[in-house]
């Protein structure tokens, strides 16, 4: 038996509880892990609260991330004792996820945990931080350099934004952090942001082309914010879009792309190929300072994760939430 958060659905609707689950009920897979830590991303909070139809089948253990140690394996790449991390692949949606003490998965979904990171640090990073690293990789591969000007990060106090600021600052970029929580300026400056921008400056419909401001952008917000960010990006610059906190719509025009040569990169973390995942985690292991990671991290036990998910949905959380599944 092991402890897990289990989502079930009846005629009255969805319910979730902390319960004991027989290990024989674990789904098919060729690698079994003892989970050390999981985390709460916005998608996890949506699944736990039922605010969005994230869960594809029931019953379901949520949690799109986990870090732990292999206990059983018939997969050629994994042996008992190996440390592994998982992000995405539909886990927590259509396959039992990480908010539990045990998991059984397809070994192809796992990557080795970098030696310099603990399992707790890996989940302080989680999908949010891994997505931020994918965004930063896209900008760097595009050729965006610190001497070209400021880089904008939207949704700056969220998990993606917080890690993106820290990674960009570590690479020598001048970072502008856009947030609606202007009282968090000290926190953002501590991560490495040079300036703080009120999200109201970006949140309403704007002109098709605006004053060139940004050499690059990491956007976790979407909607008008993304459109304005593109309209303000400098000639030849790049925008990495990974979220939709403001909305799924994109009320922009082709003007920035055909008149300024701006490139818009769509960043998917769920199905990203293995080589991109390894590159992103290597970036995180090399560039993310432990003290910066700790400053954005709050830890809860598995028994506290449901309440923490509700707080995340309400916008009352900054940075990252790590879940110790063994307490």
TrEMBL record:
**Superkingdom of this entry's organism?**
Bacteria
Q: Which InterPro entries match?
A: Acrylyl-CoA_reductase_AcuI, ADH-like_C, ADH-like_N, ER, GroES-like_sf, NAD(P)-bd_dom_sf, Zn-ADH-like_protein
Database matches in Gene3D superfamilies: Medium-chain alcohol dehydrogenases, catalytic domain, NAD(P)-binding Rossmann-like Domain
Uppermost EC category: oxidoreductase
- Which residues fall in a coiled-coil region? none
Q: Please give the Gene Ontology molecular function terms for this protein.
A: oxidoreductase activity
Q: Does the keyword Transmembrane apply?
A: no
Q: What is its EC number?
A: 1.3.1.-
Q: Which residues form the Enoyl reductase (ER) domain?
A: 13-323
Q: Which UniProt keywords apply?
A: Oxidoreductase
What is this protein called in UniProt? Acrylyl-CoA reductase (NADPH)
């Amino acid at each position: 038996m092991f402890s897990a958060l289990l989502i079930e659905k009846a005629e009255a609707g969805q319910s979730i509880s902390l319960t004991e689950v027989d290990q024989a009920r674990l789904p098919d897979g060729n690698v079994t892990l003892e989970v050390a830590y999981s985390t709460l991303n916005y998608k996890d909070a949506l699944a736990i609260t039922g605010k969005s139809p994230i869960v594809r089948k029931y019953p379901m253990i949520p949690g799109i991330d986990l870090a732990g140690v292999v206990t059983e394996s018939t997969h050629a790449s994994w042996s008992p004792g190996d440390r592994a991390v998982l992000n995405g692949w539909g886990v927590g949606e259509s396959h039992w996820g990480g908010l539990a003490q045990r998991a059984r998965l397809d070994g192809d979904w796992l990557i080795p945990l970098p030696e310099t990171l603990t399992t707790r640090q890996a989940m302080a990073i989680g999908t949010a931080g891994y997505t931020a690293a994918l965004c930063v990789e896209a900008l760097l591969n595009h050729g965006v350099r610190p001497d070209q000007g400021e880089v904008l990060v939207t949704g700056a106090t969220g998990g993606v934004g917080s890690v993106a600021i820290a990674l960009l600052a570590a690479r020598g970029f001048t970072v502008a952090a856009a947030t609606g929580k202007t009282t968090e300026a000290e926190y953002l400056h501590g991560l490495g942001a040079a300036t703080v921008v009120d999200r109201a400056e970006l949140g309403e419909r704007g002109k098709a082309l605006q004053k060139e401001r940004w050499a690059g952008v990491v956007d976790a917000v979407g909607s008008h914010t993304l459109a304005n960010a593109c309209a303000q990006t400098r000639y030849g610059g790049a925008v990495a879009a990974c979220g939709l906190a403001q909305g799924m719509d994109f009320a922009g025009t082709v003007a920035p792309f055909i008149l300024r040569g701006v490139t818009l990169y769509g960043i998917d973390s769920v199905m990203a190929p293995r080589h991109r995942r390894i590159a992103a985690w290597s970036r995180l292991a090399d560039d993310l300072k432990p003290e910066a990671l700790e400053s954005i991290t709050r830890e809860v036990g598995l028994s506290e994760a449901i309440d923490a998910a509700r707080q995340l949905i309400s916008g009352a959380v900054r940075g990252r939430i790590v879940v110790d599944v063994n307490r």
